[in-house]
TrEMBL record:
The lineage of its organism: Eukaryota, Metazoa, Spiralia, Gnathifera, Rotifera. ATP binds at K179. Its EC number is 2.7.10.2. Pfam families: PK_Tyr_Ser-Thr, SAM_TNK. Coiled coil: none annotated. Keywords: ATP-binding, Kinase, Nucleotide-binding, SH3 domain, Transferase, Tyrosine-protein kinase. This is non-specific protein-tyrosine kinase. Residues 147-385 form the Protein kinase domain. GO terms for molecular function: ATP binding; non-membrane spanning protein tyrosine kinase activity; protein serine/threonine kinase activity.
Length: 385
C-alpha cells in the first residue's frame, strides 16, 4: 500500500533470511548481512555480489554455497492471481490484456530501421501470434496494496522513482524500483498503454532491467514496477569521489560491452530504446550493468511533444545524446541508438562530463548537423585502440 512509510515492513522477512542462512550453515553472517549490507530478505540477498560477501569475512566457497542454494522461486514471474487491482480501471485493463487481439503492437515502440520495415512487420506479426498464449496468462497487473514505497531515490522528466517493497507472494518480499509516472500523453489510450506493457513484459535479457508489472492507482495514474539496482546509475557512479579507482577503464569497457549485447537483443526484436545515456544504465555491482527506462519516452509523452520541445533550453531533454535525424525528423532507428551509445562511451571515458557542455540545444544541433558534422573532443581517458 502506498502512503506513509512503515519502518517495520523491511523487517517482516528477516526470519526467512535467518532460516535460509541456518539451512546452509552460514547463520554466523546473518547480523553482518543485515547491518552492513542492508539486506532484509532472501530476494535482496541474490543481488549481493562476491566482493560484498567477502568483505564480511565469507570465503569464496561459502559465497558459492549461497548462490548455489538460492531458491529458484525468487527469480520467477509474479503470481498474478492475487495481484489484480480492485478498481474499475484495473479490472478493465486485466480484461483487455487477457482478450487482446493479434493486431500489431504500437508502431512507435516497434519503430523499425527503414531498411527493415517490410521484414519487421511480418516478424512482429509472427511474434505476436506466437506469444498470444503467454500474454493471456501473464496479466502483469500488480495490486496497489502489495506495494510499499520506502524512499524517493530519483526524479526525472517522466516522474519520480522510489525504492519500494513488493509483496510478490505470501512468503516473499522483494525490493523493487517503482516509477510513478507524472504525466501520460493525451493521445495515449488504454489500449496503447497495454500494448507498451506487453512489449515490456516480453523483454528478457541479462543486461536489461526486468519489468515486473504495472500498478493502476485509484486516481487512474500508473506506476511501473521494475528490478531494483542496489548501486546507482552509471552516471552517478562516474561522478563519485573514487570513480577512477572503483571504476577503472577495464571495468567501464566491460560495462559498455554488456550494453552492446542488450542493444543487439533489442535490434533483433526490432525495438528501439530512444534514450540511451549513462543515466539510464544501472550498476548492480562491479561486474553487472543493465539498461533501464526502455519505453518510458513513449508511455509518458508522444515523441512529437517530447522531442520537438527539446528546442526549449528550459527543459531537461536529451538533445546532447540524439542523432541529427532523430532531432530533425523524429526518425528513431537502431542507428540512432548507436549514435546515443557513442555519447555514452564519451561519458564513460570522461568520467561523467556533460557532452557539449555550455552549449544550447540549437547550438548542439548546428554543430552536429550538416554541413558542420562536428564531433565531441577525444575523451581524456579513452584507450588508444
Amino acid at each position: 500500500m502506498t502512503g506513509p512509510i512503515d519502518t517495520t515492513v523491511k523487517h517482516d522477512h528477516l526470519p526467512q533470511l535467518r532460516q535460509f542462512l541456518e539451512q546452509i550453515e552460514l547463520e554466523e553472517y546473518y547480523t553482518l548481512i543485515v547491518e552492513k549490507l542492508k539486506v532484509y530478505s532472501i530476494g535482496d540477498l541474490r543481488y549481493a555480489n562476491e566482493s560484498d560477501l567477502l568483505s564480511l569475512g565469507m570465503s569464496k566457497p561459502q559465497f558459492r554455497k549461497v548462490k548455489r542454494h538460492m531458491p529458484s522461486s525468487y527469480n520467477t514471474a509474479l503470481n498474478n492471481n492475487t495481484m489484480l487491482t480492485s478498481t474499475t480501471l484495473g479490472k478493465l485493463l486485466v480484461r483487455k490484456l487477457t482478450l487482446r487481439s493479434t493486431s500489431n503492437l504500437t508502431r512507435s515502440t516497434f519503430e523499425l530501421n527503414s531498411d527493415y520495415e517490410q521484414q519487421g512487420s511480418s516478424i512482429t506479426s509472427l511474434n505476436q501470434q506466437t506469444n498470444m498464449g503467454k500474454h493471456q496468462q501473464q496479466k502483469n497487473i500488480i495490486s496497489q496494496q502489495n506495494i510499499q514505497l520506502i524512499e524517493k531515490i530519483g526524479e526525472g522528466e517522466f516522474g519520480t522513482v522510489y525504492k519500494a517493497f513488493w509483496k510478490a507472494k505470501q512468503t516473499e518480499l522483494l525490493t523493487v524500483a517503482v516509477k510513478r509516472l507524472n504525466k501520460l500523453d493525451q493521445d495515449f489510450g488504454l489500449d496503447d498503454i497495454l500494448k507498451e506493457v506487453c512489449v515490456l513484459q516480453d523483454i528478457e535479457h541479462t543486461h536489461i532491467v526486468q519489468f515486473f508489472g504495472i500498478v493502476i492507482q485509484t486516481d487512474g495514474s500508473f506506476m511501473l514496477v521494475t528490478e531494483y539496482a542496489h548501486s546507482r546509475s552509471l552516471y552517478e557512479c562516474l561522478l563519485s569521489n573514487n570513480a577512477k579507482c572503483e571504476y577503472t577503464i577495464e571495468i567501464l569497457i566491460e560495462f559498455l560491452r554488456q550494453i552492446t549485447t542488450a542493444m543487439s537483443y533489442l535490434e533483433k526484436k526490432f525495438l528501439i530504446h530512444r534514450d540511451l545515456a549513462c543515466r539510464n544504465i544501472l550498476v548492480f555491482n562491479k561486474s553487472l550493468v543493465k539498461l533501464s527506462d526502455f519505453g518510458l519516452s513513449r508511455i509518458c509523452c508522444s515523441e512529437t511533444n517530447y522531442y520537438k520541445t527539446s528546442w526549449k533550453d528550459t527543459l531537461r531533454l536529451p538533445i546532447a545524446w540524439m542523432s541529427p535525424e532523430a532531432i530533425n525528423f523524429l526518425r528513431f532507428t537502431s542507428a540512432s541508438d548507436i549514435f546515443s551509445f557513442g555519447v555514452c562511451m564519451w561519458e564513460c571515458f570522461t568520467y561523467g562530463q556533460m557532452p557539449w557542455q555550455g552549449m544550447s540545444s540549437a547550438e548542439i544541433v548546428n554543430a552536429i548537423d550538416a554541413p558542420n558534422h562536428q564531433r565531441l573532443p577525444r575523451p581524456p581517458y579513452a584507450t588508444t585502440e
